[in-house]
Amino acid sequence: MNYHNVSFEAAYGLKQQIPVSRLPEVAFSGRSNVGKSSLINKLLGRKALARVSSEPGKTATINFYNLDDQLHIVDLPGYGYAKVGLSDKQRWAGLIEGYLKDERRNLGLVVQLVDIRRPPSDQDLQMIGFLQQMEIPYVVVLTKADKLNQAQRRERLASIAAELPGDPEGTVIIPFSALSGEGVDELREILGQLVQFAAKHPEMLTREAPEADGEAGSEDVKVEYIGFDAE
Asked: Where does the UniProt annotation place the signal sequence (predicted)?
């Protein structure tokens, strides 16, 4: 893919505004202030394509970026910022849940961001649990890796697998630094593999409606917690 050929496409504040997928999609999820906009900018080779808000918790839309007309980069609203009104928190939760459950989405992957310096928050763990229940493929990217010295980094990398839910050996974990660019090549390789797979097997990205019999059903998985962080 040509990473020089990337542009902002649209922003949506309500789930019903989002059109049916026309390209494979990779969604980026994480807490406010985890460095999501900085990661997207570094990944796409732009300085300010994804705007870094002056106030945490102010990204109130799902933003779509077109990468070489082969892939949509989808920036989900940041969660976990306490100083936001209840109505906004509920709307954001419905927006994110609606997007992730939408059968019309050609969602190939969620990139879940976690700050490497501390254990995953309750909201991070709940989001990963939600992705597992919905059987949505994901990778975990550990942001701000440059903030730790080598000893601290080794300690956190040794701990993080045990702190995440699910199979630690089956979870792809990528340290990332927006300063040094660490992790960019690994992420680009994954995105390239997804685009190639989607070209050969477009039907594999179309998800069926969740079963209602209690196993990963639509009534069992919620993201209502988003934005309700007490910190």
From this structure: none
- Is 97 domain-assigned? yes
Strands (E), 53-106: 62-67, 71-75
Determine, yes or no, domain membership for 151: yes
State in Å, rounded, how far the first CA of the chain is from the last one.
40
97-140 pLDDT tens trace = 889 999 889 999 999 999 999 999 998 998 999 999 999 999 99
- Sort 104 into a burial class: Cβ within 10 Å, 0-12 / 13-18 / 19+: exposed
Paired sense of beta strands 138-143 and 173-175, if any:
parallel
- Give the number of domains in the chain: 1
Joined tokens for residue 112:
């879940």
Helix (H, G, I), strand (E, B) or coil at 211: coil
Token reading at 22: 């026309």
Strand runs labelled E in the chain: 6-12, 25-29, 62-67, 71-75, 107-115, 138-143, 173-175
Helices and strands (DSSP H and E) totals, the chain:
5, 7
Banded pLDDT at 91 (limits 50, 70, 90): low
Q: pTM above the 0.70 mark?
A: yes
CA distance 213 to 217: 6
The CATH number of residue 63's host domain is: 3.40.50.300
Burial of residue 61, with CB atoms counted within 10 A of its CB: 0-12 exposed, 13-18 middle, 19 or more buried: middle
- Three-state SS for 88? helix
